[in-house]
Amino acid sequence: MIDFFYQTLWALDATLRVATPLMLCAMAGIFSERSGIVDISLEGKLLSGAFVAATIASLTGSVWLGLIGAISASVLMSLLHGFACITHRGDQVVSGVAINFLASGLTVILGIAIFKRGGQTPTLSSGERFRPIELWFVDALDNVPVIGAIYRELISGHSLLVYVALLCVPIASFILYKSRFGLRLRAVGESPIAVDSAGVSVTWLRYRALIVGGVFCGIAGAYLSISHGANFVREMSAGKGYIALAAVIFGNWRPIRAFWACLMFGFLDAITSRLQDIDLPLIGEVPAQLMSALPYIMTIILLSGFIGRPSPPSAIGVPYKK
Amino acid sequence: MMINKSIKTSGGDTACYILELQKISKSFGLVEANKNIDLQIEAGTIHGIIGENGAGKSTLMNILYGLHRANSGEMLVNGARVKIKSSADALSLGIGMVHQHFMLIPRFTVLENVMLGSEGGALLSKGRISTANKLKELGQTFDMEVDPYVLVSDLNVGMRQRVEILKALKGGAKILILDEPTGVLTPQEATQLFEILDKLRENGVTVLLITHKLAEIMAITDNVSIMRGGEMVGHRKTSDTNPQELAELMVGRKVLLNVEKPKAKPKEIALNVRNLGCYSSRGHKVLDNLTFQVKSGEILGVAGVSGNGQTPLMEILAGMRKPDEGYFEILGKKIDHETKVSPFTMRENAIGHIPEDRHKHGLILGFEAYENMVLGFHNTEMTGEKKLLDKNHMLKHTADRMDEYDIRPRNPKLLASSFSGGNQQKIVVARELYKNPKLLIVGEPTRGVDVGAIEFIHKQLIQLRDQGCAIILISVELDEIMGLSDRILVMNKGQEVSTVNGDDANPKDLGLMMAGISEEASN
Amino acid sequence: MSVMKPLPRWADLILLPFINLCTAFFVCGIVVYIIGENPWEALLVMLKGAFIYPGSLGYTLYYTTNFIFTGLAVATAFHAKLFNIGGEGQAYVGSLGILLATALFAPFLPAVFVVLLCIICSAMVGAAWAFIPGYLQAKRGSHVVITTIMFNFLASSLMVYLLAGPLIQLGQQSPQSDLIPESAQLASFETFLGLFGVDIASSPLNLSFVLALLALFVFWVLIWKTRLGYEIRAVGKNQDAANYAGINVPKIIIITMTISGAFAGLLAVNEVMGVQHRAILNFTAGYGFTGIAVALMGRNHPVGIFFASLLFGALFQGGAELDFEFQSITRDMVLLIQGMIILFSGALAYMFNPALSKVFSRITKNGANDD
């Protein structure tokens, strides 16, 4: 029983770690897509953020410069996306694919040029990474049964960026539903011409949405390489950007719901390694590949409209032309 | 050009005009939409701008509202020269606009829609309360109260229009532009709208009413300006003019519609519609128990405010949609919910279909003319007898039709988008008439078409009728309906209100019927 | 906005794409320059590596074969305004068709039939993998871009599971299938031409290249010469008008995606039957995604697709040469070039349009002096 309790705690703890970049990318996706811009370049932004964070942290020894670098790189990618599909009204999916390619190529080429390690960055020392933070009263609560353990194992002891990610969700929700920027952003994804005729610049609004998304993706990238990991490895984003996109759809383009989707996908990922080689009652051994494919399968089923209909922003994917 | 200035420009004294346009020009590609437009609007009046479809009214208003930029010309508001580069500029100058297609977001509440663009702070909480109060106040002043917390998608068209007006007023509009506001309203709703406009005028708001309906101009405006072919062709005081004069100015010649039409000689029943009904995707009944017949050799006009079931009726008859209830017989073939139909099989049943919206349905603008000339007939010998498409055959076929219908330029390889509206429509007409249909379904045959082409198309329809074709003509232009139809069926909310003889019809009665008041009831 | 005259047709079809391509290479050159190498030298090395060294042309054409298939897959879908990002996954599972066909038919059928059946089956399985997203788009309204991305991941998971599990070669640790029987293997050009006494350098180029050229021709006939092609293009240009014309739009969407997947599935013929002679992990190596760049650059036209495929073939083969000749640039350069080409030939395809049309209108004005 106690064993099961700790197993569960660890699984949830791992869930949180895996879900952190997903949450950040999902929020990025929501901002971009709610403004009417399809964003399959989450993956590329995440990757370039991870690379720049590790590179700068390694060169300067500062995690903070690394984080700022990651955000700048990711925002730069967002601006490129905006330049192509807002300013020049190019195809948003094509532009996203291009950015993903650019990120894959540039991170490795620059990595080799700077470090000559075949595309990896040097392993960072603990001072060059975001370290786990022990929250207040951990020791004091230790004696309280159950809660103490939950507090120590699950709630405390994560890196700053995990808490940042958790905070980003309510912030994103607040901005989207309670602020002027959010109202306009939701409006421009529904009907850009209505926004235009209300005297608000569609172009600038969409750029801002992409920039916010870039910031989120940059933080997520930094988390991958200088918090969760200790260096940059080629293609280390490993499809997380796409899973985040799936979470956006799963969450019906709403921050809180997308957050739960991220946790669910993170949980699937976390228990996959634990379920390997274990015979489950009734089901038998579950192939790890099936587990890792589950988020995609679930998203496809959801998109097929068999469990409720997803309602994407009405004007998504359509360039605005006066 | 006959520019008659009944509103005098007295020297340099332009200050008495709240709005003045000088020599505004605008072209899109090769099309000149506005040519040297001059216009003066007196403060506190309702000023009508009338002209046919495509006369350039909407373009002019979009320039005024900052949605388009003029190529040249000046704008003055309260006598001061202004540059309006965006709607934000227009709004800050006190110019508000109610667009023909509403600029509302269906998924937002009324309040959110009204707030958009002037939220009153970075957070919504404060503006929410003040906007709701303001809405209430405006609603009481102008007699158009709306619940601010309902979703716009739950409102009917008339209410949505009120929201648009409130939105403009809340933004502090002193000049309110309404672009074809009654196009989507029943005559009764239109009357209510005019009462609101009257109230606005009393409260010092200047109203610019864009319309192509003479009756509206006569009923409510103080002054009127007339546009034709992108030019301003006259200004009048409404009290000094009459519908005949305005019509002449609009069309550029004596009579609006002069179709020489011999008496119809109807023969056997070509189309027999029985208890036809269908539902929209959201479950509303859009066609309700419709029963009528059309005989070979007659034209049945279907009149109604747009959106009262005409479109689904056309789509069902053309095979683009299935009836949910009832059935219809075409040349003896019965078609109901069970029947497998497609537009293709309907064409095989000798039905021609000239759709309401040629850009949406009738043509593929990115295809060349010869490819459009076989659209819908691409599985017939029109594309050649061989297994593969026979391009030479199609080119020849198209060149022949172009000669026959005088379609210019005579280049079958030109993209459909490169033809003028009239010539595009002629491509559609040529295609749909080629196989001598026994039944022709025609929607808005002359929308956005120049006068010459209108006459040509109308003659074609009459000629086809006299050859024994049954024709259903659907049009929101009462003049067109009355000019061409042998019998007129009036629709309201998907139902038949009444059917009258073409010769006996008059606009007033038709208008009442379009509002759902049948003849018997009104007598 | 000023009056913009449309460009002359040749400029739109040739000049503009060429300018876009040059821009893409120019920007890549800048990156090479920044990391301290000579872009011009790098280009020469790639060209030599792609065409001059013995066997290099064979390699280039071997890559070209792959890109023709995936480029055609993307282009077919593009004609119906569908974006098939799933070429990678469709090609990947295409190999299952080959494995299935060899297992079923190789024991008792002569080689010619086995090869034919293998080709058909690889196309069919690729088609099936694209059919589902097509069906979901047509009937359930789920967007084909998202579903094909998801199907790539599904294909990847499925293949890892199969190649590391049920299909693994006995006694092997690395995830790969058994060798396919010899009757299903395609002759390399070296062997094939050897039969006629022609001696060429060894390379993976095999008879699939001929199949690819055939596919280009089939594509051309399909899109521009058949009634189905007419319907596909009509759906792509204007769905409402297509519906009005009696074209069954959902059906065309499904058919188009299926054909698109079939083209992608043929990639497995080159890799499995022509080169590896077995299914190995990740044999698609991103070729499916490169197909997007190929289709965009080739403007969805067979001639364009052929030359775009050739260019990418040369890039892939020449790019490998970079590893040997340079310290700091590697074949990953090719990823960057692909990205730039997709960006400039795709997303920014019309960036230079206004400038170019200004130039043209000035030329015509000077020439004819009409206003």
Which secondary structure elements does this structure contain, and how are they paired or packed?
The complex is a heterotrimer of chains A (322), B (523) and C (371).
Chain A: H1 2-34, H2 42-60, H3 63-87, H4 92-115, E1 132-133, H5 138-141, H6 147-155, E2 158-159, H7 160-178, H8 180-190, H9 192-197, H10 202-228, H11 240-250, H12 255-275, E3 279-280, E4 284-285, H13 288-303
Antiparallel strand pairs in A: 1-2, 3-4
Chain B: E1 17-28, E2 31-42, E3 46-50, H1 57-64, E4 72-77, E5 80-82, H2 87-92, E6 95-98, H3 110-115, H4 124-142, H5 157-170, E7 175-179, H6 187-202, E8 206-211, H7 214-220, E9 223-228, E10 231-237, H8 243-251, E11 269-279, E12 285-295, E13 299-303, H9 310-317, E14 325-330, E15 333-336, H10 343-348, E16 351-354, H11 358-362, H12 369-372, H13 391-404, H14 421-433, E17 439-443, H15 451-466, E18 470-474, H16 478-484, E19 487-492, E20 495-501, H17 507-514, H18 519-522
Parallel strand pairs in B: 3-8, 3-9, 6-7, 7-8, 13-18, 13-19, 16-17, 17-18
Antiparallel strand pairs in B: 1-2, 1-4, 4-5, 9-10, 11-12, 11-14, 14-15, 19-20
Helix pairs in contact in B: 14-15
Chain C: H1 9-34, H2 39-52, H3 56-79, H4 87-105, H5 111-140, H6 144-164, H7 189-195, H8 208-225, H9 227-237, H10 239-244, H11 249-265, H12 267-276, H13 287-297, H14 302-325, H15 333-347, H16 353-368
Provide a short characterization of the protein structure.
The complex is a heterotrimer of chains A (322), B (523) and C (371). Chain B is of the alpha/beta class.
Name the features:
heterotrimer, A: 322 residues, mainly alpha, two-stranded antiparallel ribbon, two-stranded antiparallel sheet, 70% helix, C: 371 residues, ABC transporter involved in vitamin B12 uptake, BtuC
